[in-house]
Each structure stands twice: as C-alpha cells, then as structure tokens.
Amino acid sequence: MRDGERRGTVLPGGAVRGWLDALVRERRLVGPALPRRGQTIFRVIEDAAGLDLDYCSTMMGPQIFVYPTIQPVLRMDPRTGGAAEVAPGDERRTVLFAVHPCDMQAITVVDQSFLGKTFDASYAKRRAEIVTAVLNCGAACDQGFCESMETGPFLRLTEGFDLEMTRLADRLLVETRTGRGAEILALSEGGREAGAADFEEKEAREAAARASFKKKLDISGLPELLMRNWDHPVYPETADARCLSCTNCTKVCPTCYCYDMADDMDFAMTEVVRRRSKDSCHELHFAAVHGGNFREVRAARLRQFVTHKLSTWLEQYGCFGCVGCGRCMTWCPTGIDLSEMAKRVQEDFARGRAR
Amino acid sequence: MSGRANPLVPRRAVVEERVAETADTVTLTFAARGGDLCDAQPGQFNMLGFAGLGEAPFSFSSIPPGGSRFVHTVRTAGNVSRAVWALEPGREVDWRGPYGRGWPLDRARGRGVVVVGGGIGIAPLRPAIRRLLDDRGEYGNLFFAFGARTEADLPFRRELEALAAAPPEGTTVRLTVDRKTEPGGPIAEGLVTAPLEEIAFPLEGSVAFSCGPELMMRFVARALFRRGQRPADHFVSLERRMECGVAQCGHCQIGAKYVCLDGPVFAQSDIARFADVIV
After folding, report:
1. Does the beta-carbon distance from B250 to A257 stay under 8 Å?
2. In a mutagenesis test of the B interface, which of A267, A289, A302, A314 is the best target, namely the one with the most B β-carbons within 10 Å?
3. A199 inside 8 A of chain B by CB
C-alpha cells in the first residue's frame, strides 16, 4: 500500500491518554496490565494508567478472551435427556487492546479451527463481537521470531482485525480496518489526519524493528523437510533428555486449540454441564484408545507438537501453526526450543545426514 | 445465534432391538426421536453418549433404508461403550452424526474387491459388504476374510457362516480364528492373512477394504501389496481417540489428517507418510 491509499489518524501524545480513558469508560477494555507480581497479563482494565503498552510478551496470549481455556458448551438434564446450548456472553462492548501482531495472527489461526472445517456458532459470535486493536512492536522480544514466521513485528494481516496502532516518536498512528475500529477511534479527541511523514516514520520503524531480530528460523521448505524426516533422532533425544510432558508449551501457545470434553454433574445429579477445556498433545491420554495408545512414547508426543506447528498445520489450514511468539520455549522448564529442533534437522540436511 | 446449529448439540434415539453377538458385543437398533434422520453411508460413524458420561464414536454396522433407524454393534470397553452396550430396548441415548468419510464403493465398481475384518472391526465393514452383495453385478470377484480370537468372539457369526456356506457366484468367504475351540465347522485356525494367499483373481487393479486391529491391517496390506495391489486402492478404517467428531478437539489427528473428518476410512497411501500410524 502506498501513501495515496493509506489513511490514518495521528493522536498526539497528550490525546492518547484521553482516548484510553474514554475506552475504559465507554467499553470493556481488555489489555496488557502493568505487572502486579512481575507478569504483564491481559485483563480487564479499570484505569487507563494501569495499561502496560511497553510490554514484550505475556504468558497467556490475548486469544484466551476469544477462545477461553474452559468453556461450558451444553447444559444437560440426565433424567430427561434434554440438552441446551450454553449461550456465549455478550462481548459487544469488549475491546481487545494492544494485541501484538503475532498474537493477532494467532487468533486468525484459531479461527480456522472453528470457522473453517467446522463452523462453531458460539466461537463465531464471540470472535465477531470482540473488537481487536493491534499494537505493532518496536523491537524484537527475547524469544520471539515472528519476523521469520512472517507474522510480525508489524502487522502482516490485511483482515481479521479492526484497528492497527503504531507508536511514533511522540504520537500514535492509528489505522482503522473496519467500521467497528473506526467506532472506537471516534472516542478519541484531538487527532489529525496522518500524512506522508507519519507513514514514512512507520516504515522506518518497521524496518528497524525487523532488523532487531537475533532469533531466526528459515521456513522455506521446512514443512516438507520435517515431514520427510519424521523419524529424526532430534525427537527422541530431546524428549528423553529434557521433555517433562508438563504441557506448559501447549498451555501458553496462542494457536493451540485442542480441547477435552468433560461432563460436570451437580451433587443432586439433576444437571450436567458439558464443558470443553484446552487439552495438550503432550498428555499421555491424548492419543489413547481402549487397549492402546498411539503416542505412548514421550518422543512421539513432542514430535506431534513440533511437527504440527511447523509442518502438518500448513497442509491442514494453509498456514503455520507457529506464529513465532516464543512462548513455548520461554515457559518450558527445561528450555526446549522448537526452532532449535527444526534447525537441527535443517543442519543435518545441509550435511547430507537427513532426507 | 447465527442460524447455523452448534455441532455439539446431540439428538435422541431409543433402542428398538438388542441382539447379543458375543459375550461382550451386542448389536443395537436405534430409532431416532423427533423425526430426525440419520442419512449414513457405509463406513461412517455416530457419536453416542450420555449426559454425565460423555461421548464416543461408533461405526454403523447396518444402515436400514429411510434413515429413521440406525444400527451399531458395540463391544463393551470404556465407560461410554459399556453404557451403550448395556442399553435395553426402550432406553435412550444421545447421538450426533453421521460423521466422516466411509468406504469408497464407487471406486470398487467393476473391480475385484477384497474385504478383511478382524473381531469388532467387522462391524464397520458390514454395511459395505451388504452393498457389495446387494449390487453383486456391479463388482468383480469378491474375496472376504473374517477373523476373531475364537469362534465365540466372532460377531455376526451365524450370518457369516451362512454366507461362507452358500456364497454368491464369484464370491469367496473365509473365516478364521486364532485358536479353535470347537471341532470341525467352516472356521479354520490361523491368522486372517493366511486365506489371502488363496485369492484367485489378479490383485492388480483390485480394491481392498480392511478393518481390525491396526497391526492386523498392516499385515493384510503388506500381503496384498506383495501380490500387486496398489496402496491407493487399499482402504483401511482407523480407530483414534475422538471427543468431538467434527475436527475441533484435535485428538484424532494423524499428521495432517483428521480421522473424524478426512477418515475414518483412508487409502493406505494417504496416511503411510505420517508418524504414529501402524498400517
């Protein structure tokens, strides 16, 4: 897009706070909150002063507001056999604010599981109601490699979000993508139309942010390479030496969508709530059937995680299941790094030791 | 809600008939409640379940015309299958479906067909066998091999013995058990792969439908490939953990495939490249 087609609004430093105050007042603002116990987390913001717009990453991504970790699905009566859908809450006031580009991409990845092969009306409703406001990243975070995964550090998506923000030297550039994005921008005062100089500064900042990455992964041919080398020793060696099957990586992964279904019955045994809650392919039960388990070995479960994110997801959904946010390696208690595992297969291939 | 229904909301069906097959296996005929229809194809499955217990996938073992009734042959194994197994006529169950891709009978038209089933794995094959026999003229030579651990473990035993005793023209039926407990009779002792050596029609260009323990299916596939059958013409029905049946919960994935959506019936050539597959 060139300047001629670009439109945006610039909020001077002083006007930003007023906008945030208005968002807190008029909407249900969910954003990165200043750390209370050392962690920035996404939660409902009650005072705009509590927003942490300088955050690097969060343990749980903002997608948990679109796809909650635990969701009641059905309310059932075990006596009559009646089953009624649990209607999702009204999210029309919710603004998911300052979502980093990798996490916005992750939400569009989760979309494919619930709006693609199978249509999930409750997911669709929540996703459609929540307004998403992206904040571009000025520099690489510790473990992020979104630049390599082509999901950041500036937004790469052209749709699926409502509004994009870029911090310039002393002002905020806001570009709206949808009418709902424009509605929340309309809560601001004191903005002016963005000009060529603003977009030039945005481009310069994007280039600088891109150049700041030390962590990289070459994704060309990677899905095919991992598919050909599914029996590479990196899986058993890493699994046996370091993987605890603790499931942290899948819990913090913003694209992990797999769920477990369970029925909770009340003490009077008159009502059952069937809920789905996020499951993990590292769990021993995940591929278990009566009389056997297709991934009984820890290495097979680690391989499922790595190859799904970096290989088979592409064949299923046309995109990677990894957005390069770096959470899995950050929160792995033994520091297992899926990008390093992929690199080892690539190095072996370069040396003629892999297919 | 936006017009489209939540795929996880079950419907209700009532048990009309319960027929014991073996000590741990029954065939249940269900009638859908409320005028619902279950328009199934051979090889597809339903999710059956109960409030408080959860759901599990069950293949159709017969597909009566009309869609108001459906039949599952159920072996008691886990919590859900035990509860389904125990259903008496008049009792109700939650159902959703039909789901998945079944046996590609169109692909078998005009060609020789080998059908191999082991134990409860014969159940998902049964509606396909029915079609092959009902439309006998549409297909080439048929070779059926069914096995179980002992005679008493063979589901549909009387039906299969009757078929073996008087097969239609161009049809061979072989029954095997791992260990014979009854003298004589039409059932031979040995592996279900052993009779495959008897197939008298050329396997190049033939189609196979196979269902049973995955290791059994592996040996069936190897035996038929050795004699010229193409992996793209060799179809297997796979069992995997399923919690949703609609390609959301993620459990049944094999590489890039969802067993619930892309299967449970796959050409062997479509899944052999993935990890954690035995066939």
Report:
1. yes
2. A289
3. no
Q: Compute CA B50 distance to the chain's CA centroid, rounded to the nearest angstrom.
A: 23
A149: distance to nearest CA of chain B, Å? 20
List the single residue in B6, B53, B243 with the smallest CB-CB distance to A122.
Answer: B6
**H or E segment and range at residue A184:** helix A179-185
Using an 8 Å CB-CB cutoff, list chain A residues near B34: none
- The angle, 0 to 180 degrees and rounded to 10, between the axes of the packed helices A234-242 and A298-307 is 120
In which region does residue A167 sit, left (phi positive, over 0), alpha (psi from -120 to 50) or beta (all else)? Answer: beta
Phi, psi of B117 (to 5 degrees): -130, 145
Render the burial of A115-139: b for 16+ CB within 10 Å, e for the rest: bebbebbbbbbbbebbbbbbbbbbe
Task: Please say if the pLDDT value at position A27 is more than 50.
Answer: yes
Q: A86 touching B, CB under 8 A?
A: no
Strand B207-211 relative to strand B113-118, pairing: parallel
The pLDDT of residue A4 is: 55
> What does the alpha-carbon distance between residue A16 and residue B176 come to, in Å, rounded to a whole number?
78
End-to-end CA distance of chain A: 41
Task: Name every residue whose Cβ is closer than 8 Å to that of residue B102 and which is 6 or more positions away in sequence.
Answer: B40, B41, B42, B43, B44, B128, B265
d(Cα B226, Cα A205) in Å, to the nearest integer?
Answer: 62
Q: What is the tens place of the pLDDT at every residue in A60-113?
A: 999 999 999 999 999 999 888 889 999 889 999 999 999 999 999 999 999 999
pTM: 0.94
